Structure prediction request, 208 residues.
Amino acid sequence: MNRKILVIALVLLLFTSCVSTMKYTWTKDNVTGKEFEKILVLVIGKNTEARAIFENTIVQALAEENIYAENSLKLFPPIISIDKLSEKAIESKIRLAGYDAVIVSSLVDIKEQEVFEYDSFYHPYPYRFPRHIYYGYSYAYSPGYYRQEKSFVVESRLFDANEPTAEDAIIWSGQSEITDPRSFESAAKEHAYSMVKTLLKSGVLLKH
Prediction:
């Protein structure tokens, strides 16, 4: 491979968006994939802004795969405390609204640790080809430093609303670990797209 092609390949690798799948998942034994018609996305949490952002981002990630879903803000508005509703009341509202599946996401753990980082930066150096000049990059380092790293573990579960009991209804679960997110939006995007990719890869959720 000549140097020009190598540089182009490295640039594409660096700037191409890559969504990873979840590391920790569970799938119900003998479950078969379904094309759900109407999925409810419900995020459990007291922060209304974060809830809305996460729900809408998951809905968008599903929509991009031609899977229809809605957020739960109309069915369970912030003024309603979901944890005070009975299981039957929740099931009744979901079924009356015509949902055949529910994705429930919640924050289950926050991890903190001290990590050491080097201050590094790219140092460009030119190399010449006939009629063109290309630039390569090498790393330069300065003394490092310690910082606190915070990771948020978000768990999502997929329920088949057509099953008679909660034990029968849960067919899949998975966890995302989001490290030092810049904002609710970046955390929601990282979780939503990895979750949808994992669901499709597992075969539990099918595209229309």
